[in-house]
Structure formats: C-alpha cells, structure tokens
Write a structure and sequence with these properties.
Layout lengths: L1 H20 L11 H11 L1 H99 L4 H19 L2
Length: 168
C-alpha cells in the first residue's frame, strides 16, 4: 500500500508539475501565493508575463518617441508659421507707411492745386483788369483825350501792371 501511496503521490506530483508547465501569461505573480509562485517559476508564467510587460514597455517607448517627434515637428511648424506671420506683419507695416506717405503727398498736391487755382484766378482777374485798362488807354488815345505826357505815364503804368502780373 505504501508503494501505491508513493506511486499516487508521484503521479499527483507529476501531474502538478505538468499542469504547471502550461504557461498562462495572464497569471499575476502577486496573487498566486507561495505555490502560485513555484508554479509560475516552473511553468514559465513569470517569464511570459515579463516578456509581455517588456513588449508593452517597448510599445510605450515607441509611442513616446513618436509623440516627441510629432511634438518637435509641430513646434518647428509653429515657429515657421510665427516667422511667416512676423514677416507678413513687417510687410504690412511697410505698406501702411507707404500708404500714409501717399495720403500725405495727395494732401500736399491738393493744397498745391488749391493754391494754384487761387493764383490762377488772381492772375486771370489782374490780366482781365489789364486788358480792360489797355482797351481804355487805346480808346483814349484814339479819341485824342490824352496829352503825350499823360499817354507816357499811362503806358508806363500799364507796363508796371503787366510786370507785376508776370512776376506772380
């Protein structure tokens, strides 16, 4: 009977060991206790779990690297866009300055035009006055209403009037 007990014990132990050889990667070493630990060591569950965790760690590191690369790319793109915006702002400021200078030039020309129109109107008024004075002088000469001295004085007066108009 003793040999049968030993045989059964050996068989049970063999089955226990064989059952432990089947790996269970989801086996958590923290929840198995001593016998679970022995079973995990002998069956390779610990190694399989460690392999799964190493793979997950590797995937996480790869994702982190990819995220860092994407972050660096996005930062470079943001910096380039910021430079583009700054360049556009500088060009816009230059264009605004040119526009202000153009508006100033237009105002200056408008002022000059107004002054020219005033001067032209004054010249025209004086020229018409001179024309009228010349016609009057001519009429007085034809009628014989002036002496030679009066005619000279009147002619000199008309020439001075002309010179004053010419110098405007």
């Amino acid at each position: 009977m003793k040999s049968m007990t030993i045989t059964l014990s050996g068989s049970a132990l063999s089955l226990f060991i064989l059952a432990g050889c089947a790996t269970d990667p989801s086996n958590d070493p923290h929840s198995g206790g001593f016998f679970g630990g022995v079973r995990g060591l002998s069956s390779g569950d610990y190694d399989a779990r460690q392999q799964v965790l190493q793979e997950q760690r590797g995937e996480s590191l790869n994702q982190l690297r990819a995220l860092r690369e994407e972050g660096a790319y996005l930062e470079e793109e943001r910096a380039m866009k910021a430079e583009d915006v700054a360049a556009q702002r500088r060009q816009l400021a230059a264009l605004k300055a040119k526009n202000r200078a153009l508006a100033s030039r237009i105002n200056q020309l408008k002022y000059t035009k107004t002054m020219t129109e005033r001067q032209t109107a004054e010249l025209r008024r004086r020229q018409q006055q001179l024309t009228g004075n010349i016609q009057q002088f001519e009429t007085e000469l034809e009628r014989g209403q002036l002496t030679a001295a009066q005619a000279d004085a009147k002619r000199l007066s008309l020439e001075r009037q002309y010179d004053a108009i010419k110098d405007l």
